[in-house]
Write a structure and sequence with these properties.
Length: 144
């Protein structure tokens, strides 16, 4: 019986790059997300990978490399195929599973927390709601 691989925390750009590559392998093969990324968005990983690594390096390691508007490409894609809660839930499930498979620790947990926040914010914005979860929850509790 072989021992399970030792998982360590995310520490640098290389960890992020390997994580993002592993994640997108799952996404491209996924029955729900694959067609969106491959057939509709036609994601070119040679272009997308450095952008996503900049994004996650900025989120996790405060690198300051990502200076784009993360909502914009999702708005454009949503025009072509409505991005539903199921899309976001599946994306989050694949992200969390990929993080958990490869890493454990403070930044690994932060990667999952931030993914939930970001996906929730983008999903709410696509539905014309406030990006803020607090604002949305506050309105729901007041019946607005």
């Amino acid at each position: 019986m072989s021992a399970s691989p030792v998982r360590r925390d995310i520490v640098d750009r290389n960890d992020i790059s390997l994580l993002v590559i592993a994640f997108y392998r799952q996404v491209f093969a996924d029955k729900l997300l694959g067609p969106v990324f491959v057939d509709i968005a036609r994601v070119d990983m040679s272009v997308h990978l450095p952008v996503m690594c900049d994004f996650w390096e900025t989120v996790l390691l405060r690198a300051g490399l990502y200076r784009r508007n993360a909502l914009r490409p999702h708005v454009a894609l949503d025009v072509q195929v409505p991005l539903t809660e199921a899309h976001f839930a599946r994306w989050l499930a694949l992200w969390a599973a990929t993080v958990d498979e490869r890493h454990e620790g403070e930044l690994a947990e932060l990667a999952k927390v931030q993914a939930n926040r970001i996906a929730g914010s983008i999903s709410r914005r696509l539905r014309g709601q406030s990006a803020s979860e607090r604002h949305t929850r506050g309105n729901e509790s007041r019946g607005v």
